[in-house]
Amino acid sequence: MKLIHAADIHLDSALRGLDRIGADNANEVRGATRRALENLVELVRREKADLLVIAGDLYDGDWNDYSTGQFFVKQMAILADLGIPVVIASGNHDAASQITRSLRLPDHVRMLGKDAPESIRFDDLNVVVHGQSYAQRDVQANLAAAFPRRVPGVVNIGVLHTSAAGYDGFKTYAPCSKADLEGLRYNYVALGHVHTRQPVVEGEFPAWFSGNLQGRHVHETGPKGALVVDLDVDRPAEVNFRALDQVRWERLAVDVTGLKSADDVLDAVGETVRAAQIAADGRTLVSRFVLQGTTPAANRFQDDQWALAEIRSITEGLGVVVEKLEVRVGAPPLPDPDADEVRAAIVGIALELAEDDAGLKAIASELERKYREVALGDDDGLVTGIDLSDRDTLQDVLGQALAGLDARLAGGMS
Prior knowledge:
Layout: E1 2-6, H1 23-30, H2 32-46, E2 51-54, H3 67-82, E3 86-88, E4 109-111, E5 118-122, E6 127-131, E7 155-161, H4 178-183, E8 188-192, E9 198-201, E10 207-209, E11 225-232, E12 235-243, E13 247-255, H5 262-280, E14 284-294, H6 304-315, E15 320-330, H7 337-355, H8 357-370, H9 391-413
Parallel strand pairs: 1-2, 2-3, 3-4, 6-7, 7-8, 8-10, 13-14, 14-15
Antiparallel strand pairs: 1-11, 5-6, 9-10, 11-12
Helix pairs in contact: 2-3, 5-6, 7-9
């Protein structure tokens, strides 16, 4: 039988960073989670799948209005007409305690129970699905430990929204170990919550995070979509990824080392843009550009407004949107040893300040006063801004500033 495994759809989620990309681009990106759900339904139809499971966080918390639920019901009606059943386990964002509105779901859509693990049999498919929804947002119990035993002679599928063994950047919900999941001895366990696609258990009894269906900000980069899983009682699952995202977020790094002029750097940016555009396969690409390395043209790129305008000129008309530009460009050594010595001394003083705890705290305080939108995080604990309380992060910010200072000094001394 063929299963489609999706998770973390976050339908109508408020995507982040849209203020930087202009009103027209922002309007397109805002509808991306809906278009991705449409793509999921089309994938189910195209693959002639037998079953769709959604492993939590279908929604992103309570709806602003009923249109969010109406859109989902409309998409599920398409699968009802095709006779394809759907099983959903709610997660921390769409727990019973989080969603105050509701609409009647089509009969072929089953929401797993929230009070205890539930098993749903599909005799015509020779399949049983085991799982449990969240009653409350903050579930800290090991739900997997109470899942039913494997049913002999049929395909056993588990559905669970969990942080599993713990993944950096995501809060702990329904924690369980790799051994817990493998010990279920199910043919496949569909996991949700972690937004990066990856296996937790491989081999005879696999468990996978499908990742989220649509990236929502620049920290969720690369292809996003669902997993197509071919299952049989007597053989290991075959798992394949299908990209379904409508808008793709990328972090595009351009190494300027060895490039002699600003034109050379911009030409390298153009090559990176064209390669990324091809890889995006026709999708709108929202990108954060990072210029890094050393070049004699470093001083020119300290004018970040000029650099940003030049890069946007390159990307215009290519389906690539510039979300932000980070300039981490330094200058190579100067041919005049005396000038280079003066430059090194000035930067050295700044470096001493950056290593002093009191100095770091003073700088962090000043940055927080000047830039209020720092230390941002989403509800899963994924850092999406600048956490100035973290020493490594603050030193990275200072490192970028020092590179800019060094480039300006080199430019003024050459």
